[in-house]
Design a protein that fits this description.
By secondary structure, the protein is of the alpha/beta class. The protein has 3 domains: 2-133, Response regulator (Rossmann fold, 3-Layer(aba) Sandwich), CATH 3.40.50.2300; 156-247; 249-411, Histidine kinase-like ATPase, C-terminal domain (Heat Shock Protein 90), CATH 3.30.565.10. It has helices at 2-12, 24-34, 47-53, 73-83, 98-106, 119-133, 135-203, 216-245, 257-268, 293-313, 345-348, 368-380, and strands at 16-20, 40-44, 61-65, 89-94, 112-115, 253-256, 278-283, 288-291, 320-328, 331-338, 382-389, 394-401. The strands form 3 sheets. Strands 2-1-3-4-5 form a 5-stranded parallel beta sheet, with helices on both faces. The structure holds adenosine-5'-triphosphate and magnesium ion. Residues 302, 305-306, 368 line the site of magnesium ion (MG).
Length: 411
Amino acid sequence: MQNDLKILTRLGKDLRIMIVAGTEELSHTSREILTPYFDEIVAVTSARDAITQYTPSTFAIVYVDLSLSDMDGMELITKLQSLDKYQKFIVLIDKENVPVMTKLYEIGVTFFAIKPFMPKCFLQVTYDVIRIVLPDQYVEEQVREFHKKLEDITEENKLQCNLLMQQSKLVQTGEMLSMIAHQWRQPLSVITAIIATTRTRMDLDLYKRSDDPYGAIEKDLHNAFVRIEEAADFLSKTVNDFRNFYRPTNTANTFNVAELINSVCRMVIPEKHYLDIELDLNIDTGIVITNFENELKQVLINIINNAKDAFIEKDIAKPKLRITLQKKGERICINITDNAQGIPQAIIEKIFLPYFSTKSEKNGTGIGLHMAKTIIERHVGGTLSVSNDAVFGGADFSIEIIPDKLNEEEL
Ligand SMILES: Nc1ncnc2c1ncn2[C@@H]1O[C@H](COP(=O)(O)OP(=O)(O)OP(=O)(O)O)[C@@H](O)[C@H]1O
Ligand SMILES: [Mg+2]
């Protein structure tokens, strides 16, 4: 009821009503009850006054008391109906007058307030009529309320969304940082190793000019600087790669895939690697593509580093790594195969899952392959899969790049 009255207040504020009461007292009571809800109330105490003051289509409701002094209430209703057949009435009727009610029903009057009426019931019937008289306004009102609620919900949702966005940005930032940290291990260890070797040589006085008549020192240092530069360059590119990782505007560039593989090998498998990895390169040197060069580099580094980990873990006597690059129709296929005994069937399905790692002692994060797969599938445009190569004796990671699949908008 409380809500009905609120609606009645809003709907009634532009409406006029007429009260035709047989006594001053009834007129007064009805007016008192209805005044807060309507814009204008015309109250009369005779049928004659009612007819003179009546204009069709101007009163939302005409309240008619059946006991009028100058005319039968029912007659007045018929008269007013002849002026406006859509006029709505509420008849103020005595409890005993039920037979009249039936007659009123017959002429289309269906709303009654039984005398002596309770304000609550009187208002309820008024509200019911208003809902019928003003179906459109009522619906509009409901729609407005609904819209308001919807706006509130949307507003709430927006806040929630913003919060979620912020949270997901934080998660992304966290992911980005762990990817950068993961990828930085390699070049950082290259730099540290070169510095350590150089320092040891200096400590051993190996760099004394007198001992180096053929200029080996320069060559040695030059080599070291080139590799440090390469590693440092990679460090900085890694930051950009992963910063761009979450941005669709990352730009692709045109590069030779064989050169990319060579540069990765130079960094990840230096010539005199302590593992003494036998590197078997079968690469087509003429493949040029437009794609995300550095991101592809990150993928290769992860795969090769995993192979190196496996060589150590399985204590492989003669570690071998075969990298093939070939074109199969439109597709560009890169295979990286090792001889580290392969991946057990029980876990082969899981290795691309985030945070899956079997390297508990080595503090493996398990994000390497997940990141690699995401890069290939979402950015580079292709597939990354794994199988065991029984002949070679280890895992075989296969990258297939479909040049057309590179997202146009990412270009
Ligand atoms: N060449 C491989 N031979 C055998 N197992 C492998 C090879 N490459 C990956 N795996 C398995 O896949 C798992 C997941 O690799 P991933 O690179 O995602 O994480 P991780 O290497 O364990 O951790 P992180 O990359 O942080 O060092 C590894 O823990 C390992 O069990
Ligand atoms: Mg790894």
